[in-house]
Amino acid sequence: MSKILDLLNEQQRDGVLTTEGPVLILAGAGSGKTRVLTHRAAYLIDEKGVAPYQIMAITFTNKAAEEMRERINKLVSFGGEAVWVATFHSSCVKILRRFADRVGYDSRFTIYDGDDQKSLIKDVCKYLDIDTKIHKERSFLSVISHAKENLVGPETFLQEAAGDFNRTRQGQVYREYQARLKANNALDFDDLIMKTVELLRGDSTVREYYQRRFHYIMVDEYQDTNTAQFELVRLLADGYRNLCVVGDDDQSIYRFRGANIYNILHFEEHYPDAKVIKLEQNYRSTQNILTAANGVIANNTGRKDKSLWTDSGEGEKVLLKQFDSAYEEAEFVADSIASLVRRGEYSYRDCAILYRTNAQSRLLEEKLVADNIPYKIFGGVNFYARREVKDLVSYLKVIDNAQDDLAVRRVLNVPRRGIGATSMDRVQAYANSNGLDFYQAMTRAGQIQGLARAAAKILAFISLIERARQVLAQEGISKSLLYIIDQTGYVEGLKAEGTDEARARIDNIDELINKVILYEQETEEPSLNDFLEQVSLVADIDQLEESADYVSLMTLHSAKGLEFPNVYLVGMEDGLFPSYMSITAENADEEIEEERRLAYVGITRAKEHLTVTAARMRMVRGEMQYASLSRFVEEIPAEAIDGNLPDRNRADAFAWENAEGPCYGSVAYARGNAAEIRKKTSAQKYAAAAKNFGDGGKEPLDYQVGDRVFHLKFGEGQVTSLVDGGRDYEVTVDFDRVGSKKMFATFAKLQRI
Ligand code: ATP
Ligand code: MG
């Protein structure tokens, strides 16, 4: 047999050999679905003499497309590069660049991104006299997007809306929006698919051309296709009906983008003659990792039942670690990777850190940089390179030092102040001829010729910066940052957008605020300049020499289809994952099931080692919050876990801290077991701590106002005030050496002396 068929099990081989007719391969993670597709393409070319250009393979991300092309090229003798391997969107761009004129567009059409769409919809709302304070622009965009995902055009939308005032208005906005797109010869992202479907439906020449061209069509990650994408595939495949789709309903994680899980569940209804193949052997992970994954996903209802097995042995158990703070969690992950690499057990590239939201990367990045560990963020950029973080850090730079021209120019029109390029040139010319820097010149905007109305706008900007400087001098860095955020309406603007992307940006801003507050609490003499220096140390990592060996960081969504020997799932806390939004949603049951599928995707990325971590306390919007372990972790069968299941042990950990004075309870309890800890603790104290935990987790303090206390960094001082902040006490201490400091009791870890 050939190498193409040799390396497959019987069911996989069946998938490769069943080249004719519709095929559905429905199988769990790591069972070799993607492998079947690549081997199938290779088999068609090498064994069946199919011309490579007659084969189409659709993937979900560009990275997946690249990998698939590479794998096919390795398997076939020649011609692999002529296979059509692309994502849905790039496939449609390719088709439309050729035939867009047949649906009324010029083939040099532009593709509108989110920002373009926003400004277009703004114009439309203005034109239609819609009060965007009541009817948000963003909500129109999401209605339009949803309609397009379901192939509903503006006219149909309006017909269906008849009699419903609200829907009718949405339809009018949709119609106008679409008309303007067309007038601009532009397509938005959803149009790419919908217009291609329109083209194939309406134009028999083009339809037949592609139907004749593609003898074999394959779709990976089929569970995440939406209605429009399904229709596209169906149209293309209607000539030969050689359509092979592979997917896993347990990994459907894009429902919020219109992915229609029924596409997979109902494939057999669309294609009654479909051959259904199930793959049950997992080749990726050890048994313990699989047991964990199966245990978690079993809690979802209405699944197609699948059972995965492996013969790769038990392997290591899933390591569970719960820390006092997210800070310690990040430190642990970085140290763990550093020591594995030092011991030669893994390379950096074998390791991946996966998290629920992008904002979580900040702490991890800082620890990785501190440990000199190369890393790369996939599906996003480094924390300090994110637009909103850069904007606000630039504001801080301007507040600190207005000679930083780059920073000044960056924020001058954030948010838009209508200060145009001509005005800026005039300011620059004035600066040049008077030997001033740009900012100084702006302070004299009133005297600069030809600025007209821009002068007032510039002076308003200057006064914002000056006021922020006063806040800085009187109340510190975090307050001046908050002042800027408030005065510029930065977060307000994002809130109004209401998209997932905007929410992620707000998360990042919150994370920056956390960073500043912690910096102020932990630094003896905090200064803005010193803070910015710290930030630039992490931010400049971008300029470090590119290495091919790096740790991969990404959200769980971006991790789909990938695999790594050593995986860390971090931030496994209720409220973070599953997200607070899903827990509190009206349809919480469904939302949590979607989050659970995401957890399943995360767990099944690991080949050999899986470490699951959580923090008991995490700073959220500048406030310490207690978090209990993610319910998904509690769903992992105990026999697959190494580490104590926390709920019954949290009280132990706290008791341990109280008995022994300030120490890291997590370290103690990760090493020892609960019984040992309990032995060291008097029954009474244990009970008190346990009870206290039930009251919200605040530690009882063994000092009061007036007591002398010791702090690790600041030395000795006297407690001057104690405020019960709900989740934690705010303690103010007058230190002998550094003066008065306000801190969270849990963080300060003060000792009475
Ligand atoms: P996911 O659902 O996560 O996308 P998948 O079902 O697509 O997973 P693959 O990525 O194709 O799974 O395969 C998982 C791993 O198992 C890969 O490293 C692949 O090379 C390996 N593998 C698959 N089938 C076999 C086989 N028959 N023999 C040896 N290794 C295999
Ligand atoms: Mg796959």
Automatic annotation (TrEMBL):
Coiled-coil region list: none
A molecular-function term among this protein's GO annotations: ATP binding
Sequence ranges assigned to domain UvrD-like helicase C-terminal in this UniProt record: 287-561
Enzyme class: isomerase
E.C. number: 5.6.2.4
Name of a matching Pfam family: UvrD-helicase
Enzymatic reactions: Couples ATP hydrolysis with the unwinding of duplex DNA by translocating in the 3'-5' direction; ATP + H2O = ADP + phosphate + H(+)
Binding site for ATP: 27-34
Entry protein name: ATP-dependent DNA helicase PcrA
Annotated source species: Shuttleworthella satelles DSM 14600
